[in-house]
Amino acid sequence: MKHTLTTILLVLSFLLTGCGASLRGVGDMGLVIERASGSIKVVETTNKTILGSVKGLGDLSHASAVYSRDGRYAYLFGRDGGLSKIDILTSTLVKRVIQGGNSIGGAISQDGRLVAVSNYSPGGVRVFDATTLELVADIPAVGEDGELSKVVGLVDVPGQKFVFSLFDAGEIWIADMSNVAAPKITKFKEIGEKPYDGLVTPDGRFYIAGLFGEDGLALLDLWNTEKGVKKILTNYGKGEKKLPVYKMPHLEGWAIAGGMAFLPAVGRHEILVVDTNTWEEKGRIPVHSQPVFAMGRPDGRQVWVNFAFPKNDTLQIIDVQTLQVVKTLKPGNGVMHMEFTPRGEHVWVSVRDLDRVEVYNTDSFERLSALTVEKPSGIFFTSRAHKIGL
Amino acid sequence: MKHTLTTILLVLSFLLTGCGASLRGVGDMGLVIERASGSIKVVETTNKTILGSVKGLGDLSHASAVYSRDGRYAYLFGRDGGLSKIDILTSTLVKRVIQGGNSIGGAISQDGRLVAVSNYSPGGVRVFDATTLELVADIPAVGEDGELSKVVGLVDVPGQKFVFSLFDAGEIWIADMSNVAAPKITKFKEIGEKPYDGLVTPDGRFYIAGLFGEDGLALLDLWNTEKGVKKILTNYGKGEKKLPVYKMPHLEGWAIAGGMAFLPAVGRHEILVVDTNTWEEKGRIPVHSQPVFAMGRPDGRQVWVNFAFPKNDTLQIIDVQTLQVVKTLKPGNGVMHMEFTPRGEHVWVSVRDLDRVEVYNTDSFERLSALTVEKPSGIFFTSRAHKIGL
Fold first, then answer.
1. Is the reported ipTM for this assembly greater than 0.90?
2. What values do phi and psi take at A385, rounded to 5?
3. What is the pLDDT of residue A1?
4. Crossing angle, helix B2-22 and helix A2-22, to 10 degrees?
5. Does B24 touch chain A (CB under 8 A)?
6. Is the pLDDT confidence value at A19 over 70?
7. Can you state the percent helix, strand and coil of chain B, rounding each to 5?
8. Inter-chain contact A299–B205, Cβ cutoff 8 Å?
9. In this complex, do A70 and B46 lie within 8 Å of one another by their Cβ atoms?
C-alpha cells in the first residue's frame, strides 16, 4: 500500500509538473520549420528558448503555417499534401491528414473555424473543419479552359472569404464560405498569364497576383469587385534583358509601409517601390542580389530583405524614409526566412546551413542569441493568428 | 489508508481538472471591466463565454488595461492609482500596488519588461518591472513652469520609449527607457494649451495630443523629432459657437483607416476626417450626438462610434469608402466601449445600464450573443499585446 501511495504521489507530481510547464500564455510563442527532417521546433520569444519539438510531419521542404484564433494550434501545410494540426502548448501532433497530392499553402478563415489548403494536384482548394480536420468543402479549380488548374496565392480575407489564383487558367477566384455547405464562388477570368503567387494587403482590401507569363501584376480591389481585375506595373520588366531566376520571390513577403509597397523584383537585383494609393511604381532600390522576401518591420520603418542562392548569406535592411539600404548583415549561407516579434524589437532569422536561428535587435542590429535548429526555414509566430491574410 | 488513497485521488482529480481548465490558448481571451464593483470578468471570444471573475481591484470607474507579451497577464490601471497584475489563465490577482494618487492610464514597453503609469497626483510617470511590479523608475513631470504637471496621453512607441503629455505645462515628453537606471528624456515645450489626451498612430510614428485650451491638436513626428511639434487642424472649432461638452472624447479611439483618421470632435455632433499624409481636414461626418469613441474595424472598412450622455444608447457605423453612416444601432443606455475581435468579424459592446455585453456580427449587424456583466465599461482583448501604442 505504501508503494501504491508513493506511485500515486510520483504520478501526481509528474502530472502537475507537466501541467505547470504547459500553463503559459501562447502570445510569445511560435514555431520554426526544420525542412530536412520533417519536424518543427516550438519556441518562445521572451527568453528566446526552444520549448519543444514535434516530428513526423512529412515533407516540409516548402511549408507554411497558420494559427487557430486562440493561438494554441498551428496548422502546417506540407509539400506532400499533408495538413498537420499541432498543439504548441504541449508540443504534440493532434492530427495529420494527407489532403492532396502537392499542397503549397493554406489559410484560416476570419472566424477561425475553417482551414483551406491550395493544391497543385489535384488542382483546387480543400476546406477543413479547424477542430476535427474533416473535409467540409472541395473546390476543384476548373478554369474557363475546362482543365483542372494548379492553385496558388491562397489567402483569407474579411467576410469569411478565401481568395486564390489559378496558375494554368489565369483566373482569380473568391470563395465566400459563409455557408460551408454551399460555397459561393466569384470568378475573374483572363487576369493575366500564369499567376504564380498572391498576397492581400494587411487590411484585406487589395489582392495582388504576380504573373510569371507576362509583365506586370494583377490587382483586385475586394471593396469594389465590380470593377474587375486591373493590371499594374505593366512596365516592370518590359523590354529589359531578363536575368535567370534562381528562386521565385514570395509575394507574401511584400512589405507595406508608409503608403508604399516594397516588392522583390523577379530576377532583378532590385526592390520595387510602389505607391499604394495609385499602385504605380515610385522607384527602385538596388540591392545585393535577387531578393526573395522583403518584410516590413511591424512599425513600418524598415524593410528586411533576403536573397536567392548562390548569394543567400546576406540580409539587407532598407530605411523606409530614405529608401536607402542602411545595413548589410552576413549571417551565413542559407538565410531562408525572417520573422519579427509582434512589436518589432527583434527579428528571428533562419540560417539553414549553420543549423541556426539567430535573433537580432532591429535597432542596433546586434545579434542577441542563436538557437540550434536543424536546417531551419520558415518561422511563424502566434501573432499571425490575429492578422488578416497571413 | 484507504481513506488516504481516496483523498489523494480526489485531490489529484481536482488538481487535474483545474489544470485542464487553464491549459488553453490566450489568443481569443480578454477582460471586461465592471466599473461599479471594482472587478473584471475574464472572457473568450470563440464561444463567447465568461471564464472567470477577479474582484478587489479598487476604483475602476475610469480604468484601462494592457497585456504582457505572452498575453497571459493583464495590467490594470485604476482611477485610485492602483496597478493590478492579473493572470487571465487562472482568473487570479497576482499582485496589486497603489502606485500613485490618481492614475489615468498606462502602457507596456515594446519588449514587455516595463509597465508605465501616468498620474495626475503626484504628476508624473512611474515605471514598474512587469514581472514583480517593483518601481524601477520615477519621472516627475516638472514642466518649464517649475510645477508638477498632471500627465495624460501616455503611450508606448518603438525603441523602448514612452511618450506622454503634461496637461498643466503644455509639453510633450519622450522617455527612452533603453537604460532603465537612467531614462533619457526629450522635452517639447509650448506645444499648446492643456493637452488632455494623446494617441500614437498604429505604426508608432505620429504622436498627437488633443488640446483643451485652444483650437487644433499637437502633432509630433517621432521619425523626425528634430522638426519639433506642429499644430494641426487649427481651424477646427475656431469661431464656431461651442457646444457644452458632456464627456471628453477619447483620442485612443481614433480610427486610422484608408489613409484617413476619424476623430470624435470635441463637443460637436461630428466625426472629423483627417488626411494622414498631410494631417489636414478632409471632411466632417454628421452623427447622432457628441461622439466618444470612433473605432476602426481591423480591416479599416468601418468606423464604429458611440456617444456621450444623455444620448449614449446608440452606436453608429460609418462606411469608410463612402464616408456615410450606414447603420444605427440602439443597444440601450450606457454604451460605454467597443472592442473588435482581432480579425474584425465581431464587435463586443458594453451596455452599462443593462448589465450586459453584447456581441454583434460586423457584416450583418446581427446581435449574436449577450453576456451578463455588472456595469460593464472597458473591454480589452489580448490581441492588444501585439499592438504598438495600445
1. yes
2. -55, -30
3. 47
4. 10
5. yes
6. no
7. 10, 45, 45
8. yes
9. yes
